[in-house]
Amino acid sequence: MTTDNTPRPAPAAPRGPRPGGPALGAAVLTTGLTAGAFFVFACAVMPGLGRGSDRAYIEVMQHINEVIQNPVFLAAFLGAPLSTAYAAWRLRRVPAGRWVLAAFVAYGAAFTLTAGVHVPLNDALAAAGDPAVIADPAAVRADFEGPWVAWNAVRAVLCTLAFGLLCRALVAYGAPAAQPVDGVAAAGSNARR
Hints:
By secondary structure, the chain is mainly alpha-helical. The protein has five helices and no strands. The chain has one domain. Residues 1-21 are annotated as: Disordered.
């Protein structure tokens, strides 16, 4: 009987669920949905409304501002920063975490724009009242339209940037030999220690 002394490769570590994956997936999904919503406003909704009369513009925007406050949109809009923050925390010791943190900052800027610019403009438009009886609908529209459209374009770019950063985080997360930030090899990694 002969003995085979040929070195054999070590068995691969089991590849089960890794921490942070579900949170990262939720962040990508919710941020993508929100970026898409703001993109559609920038590319289609606002230019389309811009072709209408002042009273029609005000009336439709008042309706949009009412109906967008629904559980489906709010789940994506509020779920994006929450899931991104949680994913950044869970992935803080691996390279993907840096990308997630950058996405959180970009989305945070968009969220701040929404709270600081869009919500006050929407509230002022609602306070203008019934478009059929507004004395100067052109002035109401002018006060709203320019700033809202311009800052929505910025908000759409920021959300799209956050989405792109999260997609990059997915690539880093899925890399087979990902190294933690502190230089210690990840558990189950094939990298040399």
